[in-house]
Amino acid sequence: MNLFTSLMRTVVPIVVGLLLGLAARVGLELDDATVTAYVTAGLTAGYYALWRALEELADRLGWEPLRTLAGLLLGWARPPQYEQPATVPIRVRVDFDADAFASKVNHVVEQRGGSAR
């Protein structure tokens, strides 16, 4: 669920930025595709920064309606809560008998028709 939330919080501002960029293009004579891309990126960044800042401010003030509105306009009602993966230390004890290991290696090599020594 966190991945979906995170993706929605990224995709919705991009789509809104694209729509705002297209709206700006209708009102302005932008004939260069690069300029249009820069305008779109700038509007997207501004849109996201504004609503994210309002969301953070509303969270600090405890004003739930503004936090919900900002979250919805960012693509999800609240910031995603990323869970830390559980880590468990694992200890492995290996009793290594070098002579037994060498004997098994020699046995395998001899079965294959070679000589280990």
Describe this structure in words.
By secondary structure, the chain is an all-alpha fold. The chain has a domain at 2-73. Helix content is 68%, strand content 0%. The chain has helices spanning 2-27, 33-61, 64-73, 98-111.
**What is the tally of beta strands?**
0
Report the β-strand fraction as a percent range.
Answer: under 5%
Q: Which word captures the global form?
A: elongated
Number of helices: 4
Rg, alpha carbons: 30 Å
Specify the biggest β-sheet: none
Ordered list of secondary-structure elements with their pairings:
Elements: H1 2-27, H2 33-61, H3 64-73, H4 98-111
Helix pairs in contact: 1-2, 2-3
Keywords:
mainly alpha, 117 residues, 68% helix
Task: Please summarize what this structure is.
The chain is mainly alpha-helical. The chain contains four helices and no strands. The chain has helices spanning 2-27, 33-61, 64-73, 98-111.
